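Please review this pair:
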Amino acid sequence: MLVLVAPGQGAQTSGFLTPWLDLPGVADRLAAWSDALEFDFTYYGTKADADEIRDTAVAQPLLVAAGLLSAAALGDGAPVTPDAVAGHSVGEITAAALAGVLDDEAALRFVRTRGLAMAEAAAVTETGMSAVLGGDPDAVLGHLEGLGLTPANVNGAGQIVAAGTIEQLAALSADRPEKARVITLKVAGAFHTAHMAPAVATLEEAAAELTVADPLLPYVSNKDGAVVTGGEEVLARIVGQVANPVRWDLCMETFRERGVTALIEVCPAGTLTGLAKRALPGVKTLALKTPDDLEAARALIAEHAGPSAS
């Protein structure tokens, strides 16, 4: 069994879409999306510097576009049907499109609204996020609670991302949990916390205008690792998840329970395959970073996708 996963914010790097423009049709798709959304996907994916694409309003639509383009390239013109899909944070919108809940343009319009709304919410108070690596998970969670921080991403494999005000994060750096490291993340807000509540209201309005379909394949939700079968519920969870923690640890537990044998992470890949290598021993992983990875990814799909693969 094979699961296709999509990364979240922070995975983007300057110029990461450049090699993908060499594939037939990719430049035209980006140009069409850019015209439709009045957002220059090609510029941001190929020429913008790291500071420009760190902007939440830029990073989020760029990540979803990259995921959709690289997933489409996997099939070389034909649809790819994994045994399940999931996405981390904004990657959930990519996964929803891959599952057929939203069409590509609707997903991009929705994520454009999400990015703008979250950037606006982040501007109210100076906030951020830090990764806590190692330590006893329960002790880490207790330590964060004591500092008033939210465990915004519980990623498994010994990684918990804390979110809160700059002052709270400074206190965490000065007073680390026992046997843990703290790394400040280059993100522009305390995502998946109460600080994002204003963005939820905006997204609820945007979601009401969308046409959704039930997922065509198992969709694993960040909220609790559950497999969601209704399109309206998928969308409602994506909206609420903006101000609530990402439980990627529970998503990986679901992969394990469903007998997943291989995991492919769409572009810009690396983060989720890294977590899977530590948390899902024995599961083959592939990070789809450039078109050079497509041949190996297609071989993995041929070997592992479908009921007979398990």
Notes: The chain has a mean pLDDT of 95. The first strand starts at residue 2 and ends at 6.
